[in-house]
Amino acid sequence: MNTAVLRQHAEHQFAEELAELKKVDDRTRPANWQLSPWAVVTYLLGGKLPNGFEVTPKYIGNRRLMEVAVATVATDRALLLFGVPGTAKSWVSEHMTAAISGDSTLLMQGTAGTSEEQIRYGWNYAQLLAHGPSEKAMVPSPMMEAMRLGKIARIEELTRIPADVQDSLITVLSEKTLPIPELASEMQAVRGFSVIATANNRDKGVNELSSALKRRFNTVILPVPASEEEEIAIVVKRVNELGRALDLPAEPPALKEVARIVRIFRELRNGQTEDGKSKLKSPSSTLSTAEAISVINNGMALAGHFGDGVMRPHDMASGMLGAIVKDPVQDQVVWTEYLETIVKERSDWKDLYRAFREQV
Q1: Degrees, nearest 5: CA angle 119-220-21
Q2: Beta strand residue intervals within 119-184, DSSP E
Q3: What is the pLDDT of residue 285?
Q4: Please, which residues have CB within 8 angstroms of residue 114's CB and are 6 or more apart in sequence?
């Protein structure tokens, strides 16, 4: 595997952990699973193995949610990971698939332009014109490959896909078969096949799932981190990982800076200060954990390439404003009010206040 790629697939990046889990995993595995459900959850949440090897956590949160998600895929039900943007839906989907199938690349990205052929199969038109419909002329979709191999197919942003295209999944999910009328045949799913889809509630009302399709999914809602400490832990972990992967020439930020960014995001997202004493207006942006991570990585890049390698308030100020102020009128009012009534009044945030004022 080429280690110079910008982003390795989960099964390559964490190959050592998956291999160590296989060594100690003596529990029952469903057909075509690389690991048992217990081992998959251990891979997701981390922990020390009987041989002393330490598995790093991929998801920091409620263990029961991960157990329900993994148990769903072990049945004949498809899994829908649902929640606000930035709650690690895609991250969990990728790592679950890597641990179960050993291959997270059977992926379909949902967009307004996703067609039924991308879900089912397409055709090599040169072969089709030369020889007519045949298996040789067929271009299988990731869904078809997952059915053939008994693996997990991933669908990102399911509710971005047009409703009539979504419904092409119903036969696959209920009958575990994909009709191929052009060849008067079908593709039947091999045991181990399942589908993990993601959707975010900001797209609610865009392309609602039909009731028939909803019934084919077991929905697991991934919440925002329950506490400030939990969110800080997530941000610190991912910032360190991404900093190493991107070779950013800056040292990881001090915990104090991470805590302040997380505090701002949580307060604006929740519409009140963390102590509950002041009510706040919320901006139109989601202010997710993922965006906090992005802001810090951007600040590290600025500090590393244009500073002394230590991230300071002015390095993250512009990134924070870009994340918070999406609507230049409405969000600017919300942000200015928060800056003058909350940030300015905190005695240990004076440097942060000055950095933000310089950006206004």
Answers
A1: 85
A2: 121-123, 138-140, 152-156, 177-180
A3: 85
A4: 108, 160, 161, 162, 165
Looking up tokens 């002393």 gives 52
Beta bridge pairs of residue 133: none
What gap in Å lies between CA 144 and CA 148, rounded to an integer? 6
Kindly report the CA angle at 99 between 108 and 216, in degrees rounded to 5?
Answer: 50
Query: How high is the pLDDT of residue 219?
Result: 95
The pLDDT assigned to 359 comes to 78
Task: With CA atoms as reference, report the closest residue to 6 among 211, 293, 227, 245.
Answer: 245
What gap in Å lies between CA 166 and CA 329, rounded to an integer? 36
DSSP letters spanning 171-186 = HHHHHSEEEEGGGTEE
- Alpha-carbon gap, residue 130 to 240, rounded angstroms: 54
pLDDT at 179: 94
Could you tell me the pTM of the whole model? Answer: 0.90
Three-state secondary-structure class, residue 117: helix
User: Please, which residues have CB within 8 angstroms of residue 208's CB and are 6 or more apart in sequence?
Assistant: 159, 163
Burial class (CB in 10 A: 0-12, 13-18, 19+), 328: exposed
- Provide the 10 A C-beta neighbour count for residue 185: 11
Distance set, CA 189 to CA 97, 152, 164, 260, 313 (Å): 17, 11, 22, 49, 54
Q: How far is CA 303 from CA 6, 251, 309, 313, 358, in A?
A: 21, 9, 5, 10, 17
Pairing of strands 138-140, 121-123: antiparallel
Cα–Cα distance measured from residue 55 to residue 309, given in angstroms and rounded to the nearest whole number: 30
Angle between helices 255-270 and 330-338 (to 10 degrees): 120
pLDDT, averaged per 10 consecutive residues of the chain (360 residues), comes to: 77 96 96 97 96 94 96 95 91 97 96 92 91 90 97 95 93 94 94 95 74 94 91 91 82 88 94 92 89 92 91 90 91 94 93 87
User: What radius of gyration do the chain's Cα atoms show?
Assistant: 23
> What residues pair up with 196 in beta bridges, in sequence order?
79, 154
